[in-house]
Design goal:
The chain is α/β, with parallel strands linked by helices and 549 residues long.
């Protein structure tokens, strides 16, 4: 069929092993995103014919794409079939559940994310194994959708990444938004040059993505594509469902190499305790219900494939497609992080040290003078949709025991502020820094306050960060200790709302070791300008730095 893939017919094993009636454990071995299936198998203890005198409630968080079908299956199943459980199914974004489990928040008893990648991310965050009642209850491949008369030709996912008008979505919350990149990395295998080509292709794509907001929702992407043309990465299931009510006929296509598949595992996330063991049995019962003929029919009607990846019936979707697998999980994780970082603009609070030593001579200028120059040069690097704020700090600068003073709150650089832009206001206030120089360095309290300020106003469409410039070490005897600061930063860091701290030491007078520890506690990076001439370049590099995502 024109516009579709030309891969030979093949029934292949999905990205993760197929659905199982036993409980497997997900864990991490040594490296990031290396997930292995290991551990014991638990027998399901079914209550056949015994009846249920009491029902125990368990929550099920299912990715919004599959939640309605899961509800149908639960409603169709008897209490006995579900281990005398009352299952409360809620449509919840996979990213939200992953964050909740990682932080030990409001955790569901059972979880069906759109991909095992979320389970792996959660395991990495918690360091604990996760029981799987099923490694896949359904599947759906990533496809490129286009209007029927505008289906493009491409021979690989790398080529697809370079298609004009490509809409991908939000790489931080939606697995399908990463699918084209994962497909290209799977094609590259262990070939270093090929992997580098994928990374290079991401730069213009990420820059284009940074200017969009509504594309996180795949239906929005399809709506925009229907109106304006172009191509969009969506799941086959989303496209099949969308076509039921769309006026414009859309066609799916994929390269002959195959595609990355969403695999919808069923994880047991009930916290450790008296209910955990019973939740395993309920999870196995739900997995069995989701493999019934009724469930498979309901899943198919909604556009999902069975766990074996077999094509949809009645000629729907894209047809037979080879599942692609990742050869090097570490490289894949690093590449995705780079794309995720590039695709989001910056939301940054810059903290400038104005303690007395910043007035020291530094060649033809002072340390603070060079820092002002560097700040203004960095200001010009960012697009209008970036957001930035400015604090100055030294002991008591904010009055009483407060060591910091807000000069400019965080706002978009193009925001109008009393007739002037935020960008111009930052330049103006940066110019006042030399007049504030004096006193000791109040580093620790200020670092913690800035971290909390950025976290409080966290924006998921941005890389949220704090940049600290200082030429000294903490001199405030009334502040928190370094150990208290580091432990607080680690405990308050939220994987669903990550805030990174980037530190810049100015000259060797700065305590580089301490600054590095502060950055590392949040996943950020640390820089050192050993001599005054390096300050501008180091500051610019720090502004560009977006490690920790």
């Amino acid at each position: 069929m024109p516009g579709r893939h030309s891969a030979p017919a093949r029934h292949s094993v999905p990205n993760t092993p197929s659905s199982s009636t036993g409980l497997a454990k997900y864990g991490v071995i040594a490296v990031v995103l290396v997930i292995v299936v290991a551990g014991g198998v638990y027998a399901a203890q079914k209550a056949f014919g015994a009846g249920c005198s009491d029902l125990v409630s368990y929550s099920v968080a299912a990715d919004p794409a599959i939640a309605d079908v899961v509800k149908q299956v639960v409603d169709h199943s008897s209490a006995e079939d579900l281990e005398c459980a009352n299952l409360e199914v809620t449509a919840t974004d996979s990213s939200s559940v992953s964050a909740a489990v990682s932080m030990g928040g409001d955790v569901p008893s059972l979880w069906i994310p759109d991909s095992a990648l979320w389970v792996g991310k959660t395991v990495r965050a918690t360091g604990s194994l996760v029981d799987l009642a099923s490694q896949s209850v359904a599947s759906s491949p990533a496809v490129i959708a286009a209007r029927k008369d505008e289906v493009p030709f491409f021979d690989s996912w790398l080529t697809a990444l370079q298609l004009k008008g490509l809409r991908i979505g939000n790489p931080l919350s939606n697995t399908i938004s990463d699918a084209a990149i994962l497909g290209a990395l799977a094609e590259a295998g262990t070939d270093t040059d090929a992997v580098d080509s994928v990374s290079a292709a991401l730069v213009p794509i990420a820059q284009a993505q940074a200017a969009t907001r509504g594309e996180a929702d795949p239906v929005v992407r399809l709506d925009e594509m229907t109106t304006d043309g172009g191509v969009s990465v969506v799941s086959e299931q989303t496209l099949v469902e969308y076509q039921k009510s769309a006026d414009t006929e859309l066609s799916p296509t994929a390269p002959p190499t195959g595609s990355f598949f969403l695999n919808f595992p069923l994880a047991v996330t009930e916290p450790a305790g008296d209910r955990h063991e019973s939740a395993k049995g309920v999870g196995l019962a739900l997995a069995e219900a989701l493999s019934s003929q009724f469930a498979l029919s309901a899943l198919s009607d909604a556009g999902f494939r069975a766990p074996d990846n077999a094509p949809l019936s009645e000629g729907r979707g894209i047809g037979d497609l080879t599942p692609l697998t990742i050869a090097d999980q570490q490289t894949a994780e690093a590449t995705l992080r780079r794309y995720q970082v590039l695709a989001l603009p910056s939301r940054t609070l810059v903290m400038e040290d104005v303690s007395g030593s910043m007035g020291y001579s530094a060649g033809a200028d002072t340390r603070i003078g060079l820092t002002v120059q560097a700040s203004n040069a960095g200001n010009k690097l960012f697009p209008d949709n970036a957001a930035m704020g400015l604090w100055a700090f030294s002991i008591g600068l904010g009055g009483g025991s407060q060591d910091y003073r807000e000069l400019v709150p965080i706002r978009r650089l193009d925001e109008d502020v009393n007739g002037s832009s935020q960008r111009n206001l930052l330049v103006q206030q940066t110019g006042t820094l030399p007049g504030l120089v004096g006193g000791g360095t109040g580093l620790y309290d200020t670092a913690l306050a800035a971290f909390r300020e950025v976290k409080e106003g966290y924006d998921p469409d941005y890389i949220n960060s704090v940049i600290i410039l200082t030429d000294g070490s903490n001199e405030d005897p009334g502040s928190v200790s370094l150990d208290e600061l580091l432990s607080t930063l680690r405990s308050e860091q939220d994987s669903s709302k990550p805030v990174i701290i980037v530190t810049i030491g100015i000259t060797d007078d700065a305590d580089a070791g301490v600054l590095q520890q502060i950055s590392a506690a949040t996943g950020g990076t640390s820089f050192l300008a050993r001599n005054p001439a390096e300050i501008p370049n180091v500051f610019v590099n720090a502004l560009k730095s977006r490690a920790g995502r």
